């Protein structure tokens, strides 16, 4: 089921047929490094069993989407997780696994779609994330969606930038973007 569509991407439900690419991405050393994780070393068969369990037992503390191009190519995934209903906030993450789509706006488009979906369809009022201090490209994408740095954190060998976005700030950010659009000044 398609949930929302942007200029470059669509967000849809995760599917069983996504498993082979998700496995490839999670075993890729470069992608794992950007996610501050070790590449998976489990077999695809074990991964698939866990994947099916997660798909069949959708967690109420997680909202996840497959990201596809407008042509229908699956290129990554994004999620809103660690939902804290009492604090009305959650953490977000995104992975564009198909490297040929890096730096072309696909991640920014998909992240913006997910943020808007979550703020429109849930009672959440704030989203936050952490990204490697060295991942400048991700930080730029997050800023384009309205996230602002709000701290730093060290964990093991990794140093992270913490970023946050409130629902009110997202609305202000979108209205400023609309004002900057040349088509709106005609």
Structural write-up:
With 186 residues, this protein is of the alpha+beta class. Helices cover 36% and strands 32% of the residues. The protein contains 6 helices and 8 strands; from the N terminus they run E-E-H-H-H-E-E-E-H-E-H-E-E-H. It has an 8-stranded mixed beta sheet with strand order 1-2-3-4-5-6-8-7. The longest helix is centred in the middle third of the chain and has 16 residues, at 106-121. The chain is globular and about 50 Å long. The protein starts with a strand and ends in a 6-residue tail after the last helix.
Question: In summary, what is this structure?
Answer:
By secondary structure, this protein is of the alpha+beta class.
Multimerization status: single chain
Strand order of the largest sheet: 1-2-3-4-5-6-8-7
What is the general shape? globular
Largest sheet: 8 strands, mixed
Strand elements, count: 8
Low-confidence stretches: none
Residue-averaged pLDDT: 90
H-E order: EEHHHEEEHEHEEH
As a whole number of angstroms, the C-alpha radius of gyration is 17 Å
Question: What labels describe this entry?
Answer:
alpha+beta, 8-stranded mixed β-sheet, 8 strands, single chain, 6 helices
Per-chain topology:
Layout: E1 2-5, E2 9-12, H1 19-27, H2 29-34, H3 44-56, E3 62-69, E4 74-84, E5 89-96, H4 106-121, E6 126-132, H5 136-144, E7 148-155, E8 158-166, H6 167-180
Parallel strand pairs: 5-6
Antiparallel strand pairs: 1-2, 2-3, 3-4, 4-5, 6-8, 7-8
């Amino acid at each position: 089921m398609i949930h929302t569509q942007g200029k470059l991407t669509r967000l849809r439900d995760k599917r069983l047929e996504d498993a082979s690419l998700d496995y490839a991405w999670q075993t890729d050393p470069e992608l794992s490094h950007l996610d501050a994780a070790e590449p998976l070393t489990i077999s695809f068969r074990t991964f698939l069993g866990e994947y099916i369990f997660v798909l069949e037992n959708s967690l109420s503390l997680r909202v996840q989407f497959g990201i596809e191009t407008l042509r229908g190519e699956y290129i990554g995934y994004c999620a809103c997780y660690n939902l804290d209903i009492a604090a009305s906030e959650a953490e977000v993450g995104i992975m564009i696994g198909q490297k040929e789509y890096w730096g072309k706006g696909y991640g920014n488009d998909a992240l913006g779609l997910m943020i808007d979906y979550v703020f429109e369809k849930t009672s959440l009022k704030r989203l936050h994330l952490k990204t490697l201090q060295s991942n400048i490209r991700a930080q730029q994408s997050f800023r384009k969606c309205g996230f602002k740095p709000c701290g730093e954190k060290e964990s093991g060998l990794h140093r992270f930038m913490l970023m946050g976005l409130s629902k009110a700030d997202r609305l202000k950010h979108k209205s400023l973007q609309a004002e900057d659009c040349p088509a709106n000044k005609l």
